[in-house]
């Protein structure tokens, strides 16, 4: 049975992305990973948990790590979780910015009872 036990990533609104990156990197000394423009997102690492700041994020999103996203998707579906999407590639990490080179980050999204977005996340070899 799939149990979500490891928080992988949190997405948060940045508003002014330049000011947010400067604040977290320069003023707080947080470990900066990468920035992508477009779409206007920046990543920081907090002891293995990524925080994704997005200039136009409408809400906070929780991402949970699973080792086998397809199996976890099927298991949670069988327990009544209604997904917004099937597991799919979000990012091809050819350079290894987030993990091992030549891997893909896969995700599948659903909502909790309050309407918050929740995601399963996993790395898959290309």
Describe the structure.
The chain has one domain (7-125): 2,3-Dihydroxybiphenyl 1,2-Dioxygenase, domain 1, CATH 3.10.180.10. Helices cover 17% and strands 43% of the residues. It is built from two helices and eight strands. Strands 2-3-4-1-5-8-7-6 form an eight-stranded mixed beta sheet, with helices on one face. The radius of gyration is 15 Å and the shape is globular. The model has no long low-confidence stretch (mean pLDDT 90).
Low-confidence stretches: none
What is the CATH third-level topology name?
Answer: 2,3-Dihydroxybiphenyl 1,2-Dioxygenase, domain 1
What is the CATH class? Alpha Beta
The second-level CATH architecture is Roll
Order of helices and strands: EHEEEEHEEE
Our measurement of the CA-to-CA distance between the termini, rounded to an integer number of angstroms, reads 26 Å
Please outline the major beta sheet: 8 strands, mixed
List the total number of helices: 2
Number of individual domains: 1
Shape: globular
Mean pLDDT: 90
How many beta-strand elements? 8
Superfamily at the CATH H level?
2,3-Dihydroxybiphenyl 1,2-Dioxygenase, domain 1
Structural class: alpha+beta
- What percentage of amino acids are in beta strands? 35-45%
- Strand line-up in the sheet with most strands: 2-3-4-1-5-8-7-6
Rg measurement, Å? 15 Å
**Helical amount among residues, as a percent range?**
10-25%
Short description:
With 126 residues, the protein is α+β, with helices and mostly antiparallel strands. It has helices at 17-27, 69-78; strands spanning 7-13, 31-36, 41-46, 49-54, 61-65, 88-93, 103-111, 117-125.
């Amino acid at each position: 049975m799939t149990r979500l036990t490891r928080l992988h990533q949190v997405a948060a609104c940045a508003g002014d992305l330049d000011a947010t990156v400067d604040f977290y990197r320069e003023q707080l000394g947080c470990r900066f990973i990468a920035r992508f423009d477009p779409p206007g997102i920046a990543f920081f690492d907090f002891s293995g948990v990524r925080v994704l700041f997005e200039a136009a994020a409408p809400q906070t999103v929780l991402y949970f790590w699973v080792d086998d996203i397809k199996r976890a998707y099927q298991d949670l579906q069988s327990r009544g979780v209604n997904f917004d999407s099937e597991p799919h590639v979000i990012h091809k990490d050819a350079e290894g910015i987030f993990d091992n080179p030549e891997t893909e980050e896969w995700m599948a999204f659903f909502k909790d009872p309050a309407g918050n977005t929740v995601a399963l996340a996993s790395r898959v070899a290309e």
